[in-house]
C-alpha cells in the first residue's frame, strides 16, 4: 500500500515478518498515520 501526502518529503518503510502483516504492525502504522 502506498499513501502520498502533499508537501511531505518524509517516508516510513515497513517491512513485515515472514508470516505477513500482523495486528501489531497494523496498529503501529495506524498510529504513525494519525500522527502525520
Walk me through this protein's architecture.
- By secondary structure, this protein is mainly alpha-helical.
- It has 1 helix and no strands.
- The longest helix has 13 residues.
- The protein is elongated.
- The protein starts with 22 loop residues before the first helix and ends with a helix.
- 0% of the residues are buried.
What key attributes describe this structure?
0% strand; single chain; 36 residues
Gist of the model:
With 36 residues, this protein is an all-alpha fold. It is built from one helix and no strands.
Strands, helices and their partners?
Blueprint: H1 23-35
- Determine the mean pLDDT: 83
Sketch the major β-sheet. none
Number of DSSP helical runs: 1
- Tell me the total number of β-strands: 0
* Rg over C-alpha atoms, rounded to the nearest angstrom: 11 Å
Structural class: mainly alpha
Question: Uncertain regions: pLDDT < 50 for 5+ in a row?
Answer: none
The helix-strand sequence is H
User: How much of the polypeptide forms β-strand, as a percent range?
Assistant: under 5%
Amino acid at each position: 500500500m502506498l499513501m502520498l501526502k502533499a508537501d511531505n518529503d518524509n517516508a516510513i518503510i515497513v517491512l513485515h515478518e515472514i508470516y505477513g502483516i500482523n495486528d501489531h504492525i497494523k496498529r503501529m502504522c495506524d498510529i504513525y498515520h494519525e500522527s502525520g
